[in-house]
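Input chain follows. Return structure tokens only.
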Amino acid sequence: MSLVSNLFLLFVAVSVLVYYIVPHKFQWLVLLCFSYIYYLAGGVRYVGFILFSTLVTWGIALAVEKAEAGGSHKSARNFLVLGLILNFGMLGVIKYTNFMIENLNALFHMNLRGMEILLPLGISFYTFQSSGYLLDVYWKRCEAEKNPVKYALFVSFFPQLIQGPISFYDQLAHQLYAERNFSYKNLKHGTLLMLWGYFKKMVIADRAVSLIQMVAPDYMQYNGTVIFITVLVYALQLYADFSGGIDISRGFAEILGIEMAENFCRPYFAVSINDYWRRWHITLGAWMKNYVFYSLAMSKRFFKMGKNLKQKYGDHAIGAHIAKVLPAGIASFITFLLVGIWHGANMKYVAFGVWNGSVILLSVLMQPLFNKAIAGLHIQTQKKSWRIFQILRTFLIVLIGYMFDIGNNFSAAIDMLGRC
């Protein structure tokens, strides 16, 4: 059910009407019913996947909490690992099996046949969301939900299934279960936000996409200027389409009195690639930071790496700097590699992650040299001209990454870069 279809608008109107008509204690059940109706509309055969993810993470979260209460941290950790393997294993098999087969065939000249699998609606979003909940229970950031039906609503809440945002349990769950009266203020603000989202998607994104579809598949017919303009248009189209969809989802949720996390904050005004990822797909960045980056950077192995580097090279300023930032830089690189893989099962998305991770890794390693250059050139960093330079520099780095998005494959993306 497309966000821009008349059927979706009818679905929204009916769900809001029923939500506010029923007794307050049944409102969360109305949300659950409409969420599964929405999911069923995308394909009955895919319901099993979201049910599997829901039941696995709900049951194992309870087992983790019980094991911790009994003083068996090892058992809790084993349950956690099992839950993550089952949850991400399902995503991996469905989304990346054919990608792995294609690469094995290319590397070892094999002739393995791929699987005919259609990607279930929202599987990347609800897999990450439910896995984040499981980790939060393990780290005692929240208590495990005892009611499986209520937890099913947290996983399946339909406004977030298509484009996100990826919600955290302690931020969203209590809002889903709360009892609410109709609010004209929420209706007005939510409707305006939805209209703004529709304007972005239907007026801006849908018109910009025609140029991209014309140039990207036959880029060899065009010169570098046209390709560069196409990438600029893609930056506009991607932002308008993605943030527009989020606005529609958040606007609908606001009509229900539910505040979903903001996912964009003027990303093209970022002054560094790190800043860009704090503004673009904010909830994905927050998920990766909380559950991947910190887990790596604060692990014993990475701590030991920094300690060993300091012992070997800490006597020199450069060595001390590298020893301090390299472990975190490597953790960032791995995190962004996973961000690239999350975006799609294709080498061009792997390259997209490697590009972003490499820029961040090099920036932290080279920071002392950058600082010296700024001081040597007597650049006044508080001036607007410097900020404008930072914004343009970051935007160019982002555009290079977008080449991997619009190219049909990795080779095409590299060729397009060479032509610009």
